[in-house]
Specification:
With 472 residues, the chain is α/β, with parallel strands linked by helices. It has 14 helices and 18 strands.
């Protein structure tokens, strides 16, 4: 990641961000100013493999998510948000505001020359921290990638090494994590549930008395497989440590997915309670979202969720809207109206410019992003709203193509959609409003509106893919 000196950052404050294409951001007009109104805290809660079909307020029928639903009911719920259909490229896009073909060439890698929003906010006077899944580095590096990305503090785990331990039944991302690090030091979690440790770290960080505003990212491992029981599951409450010892492996059981989702929802509620008790609720922008759709391999093969009057499989890896479209909820009582559901389009490239906007920080001079701030949308101003959003993927149940995007560049599917139409780089186009499961593509000359949408979106995709810096 590109390290920003205070001198170089302050020099760049007055400069507007460059744009890659028509989907990019223009000038950022901050909603707050460090010289007038107190700048908001920012709490980003990123779920793992939590598709929209699992969330009640998005129409999910199989599970109960009362705290996430309440966050939406008291804030703004975006119906149309795109990530990528798998974790690593989504996380790079989130941090850098750039689409994958510009800066993502290797699995679990965030390049050192990339500027991240934690770096910008850190240089702009924010305390910064992250808890949970990081994944984007070799933890043997010094300094570690997570330490270069702009975080003052962190509690996370060495994800690559974790897999070998779990295959030997010695611990996994939920129980007895053997690769847990807090601010550079290895720690032994014992029998503590990992998500409880991440919650306590987050609670401690956001509860401290400080004159500085803060950025806190809680990247859950919930609900990534292995599907494991939580502390609220009967098998753990009744069996204790001896029961935990039976759940240290690589593969879980489908039946525990609902327990994991309930626990994720519970933690969302507990964090909101912390904000209320510490008097920070009205001045904290809370974002709940997820990195991609629900999983569908290993024990997730049997997972089905009721959504829009049918049982659906998770869409992870796929470029269907079950894979690329994710839940996205924004909540800040002191800033937003409650109970707003919007059709406006956003994607993960918008997070960097939006957080900078909220913090009153201009983008550093020369920093190009594909995103634009969604902060005006939160205030009811859609005058600069997006015309389209973009994602890409392999449309297969494997991460192979995502792990080496350069090698498989000719096999990727690129998708671009507006509020009604979704276009694939292989020529298919769907009326995503009336055909949300993408079962009836329109042939050329079959429908005049579809033909016009195809022509427009195909041109916009070509313009995007030929603009700026491209690595594949």
């Amino acid at each position: 990641m590109k390290n920003l000196s205070r001198r170089s950052f302050m020099k760049s404050i007055g400069s507007a961000a460059a744009v890659f294409a028509s989907g990019g951001c223009g000038n950022i007009s901050a909603i707050t100013s460090s010289n007038s109104i107190k700048r908001p805290n920012i709490l980003l809660i990123l779920g793992d493999d939590i598709g929209r079909e699992t969330i009640s307020c998005y129409g999910g029928e199989s599970y109960s998510t009362p705290n996430i639903d309440k966050l939406a009911a008291e804030g703004m719920r975006f119906k149309n948000c795109y990530a990528t259909p798998i974790c690593s490229p989504t996380r790079v896009e989130l941090l850098t505001g750039k689409y994958s073909f510009r800066n993502y060439t290797k699995w679990r890698e965030l390049k050192d020359d990339q500027t991240t929003f934690p770096q910008i906010l850190q240089q702009n006077g924010y305390r910064t921290a992250i808890a949970g899944k990081w994944q984007l580095e070799d933890w043997d590096e010094q300094p570690k990638g997570i330490e270069k990305a702009g975080y003052d503090e962190y509690l996370s785990l060495d994800h690559p090494k974790m897999l070998s331990y779990s295959k030997r039944d010695e611990g996994n991302v939920f129980w007895k994590i053997p690769t847990l690090y807090k601010n550079g030091k290895h720690i032994d979690p014992g029998y503590e549930y990992a998500e409880d440790l991440f919650y306590e770290f987050t609670k401690d960080f956001i509860s401290r008395d400080s004159e500085k505003p803060w950025l806190m990212e809680y990247h859950m491992n919930l609900c990534h497989r292995p599907f494991m029981p939580t502390p609220d599951s009967d098998v753990i409450k009744e069996g204790g440590k001896s029961a935990i010892d039976k759940f240290l492996g690589f593969e879980g059981e489908t039946k525990y997915f609902s327990d994991m989702l309930s626990y994720a929802d519970k933690l969302v509620g507990k964090l909101v309670e912390v904000l209320e008790k510490t008097g920070q609720r009205d001045n904290t922008l809370v974002i709940f979202t997820a990195d991609n759709g629900t999983d569908n391999v290993w024990e997730a093969k049997q997972l089905r969720s009721e959504y829009r009057n049918r049982m659906v499989e998770g869409g992870k890896y796929k470029t269907s809207d079950l894979g690329a479209a994710v839940p996205f909820i924004a909540n800040c009582p002191g800033m937003l109206k409650s109970g707003v559901v919007t059709e406006e389009l956003i994607d993960f490239s918008d997070i960097l410019p939006s957080f900078c906007d909220a913090a009153g920080a201009r983008l550093p001079e020369g920093l190009e992003t594909d995103g634009r701030s969604f902060i005006p949308l939160l205030k009811g101003d859609s005058s600069n709203a997006r015309d389209w959003i973009y994602s890409w993927g392999g449309f297969i149940k494997t991460s192979r193509r995502y792990k080496d995007p350069v090698k498989y560049k000719d096999e990727h599917l690129h998708i671009i959609r507006n509020k009604r139409w979704k276009y694939y780089s292989d020529g298919r186009i769907f009326d995503i409003i009336n055909d949300p499961f993408e079962e009836n593509p329109f042939k050329e000359s079959e429908n005049e509106q579809a033909d016009k949408a195809r022509e427009y979106l195909e041109a916009e995709l070509a313009k995007l893919r030929s603009s700026g810096r491209r690595l594949w």
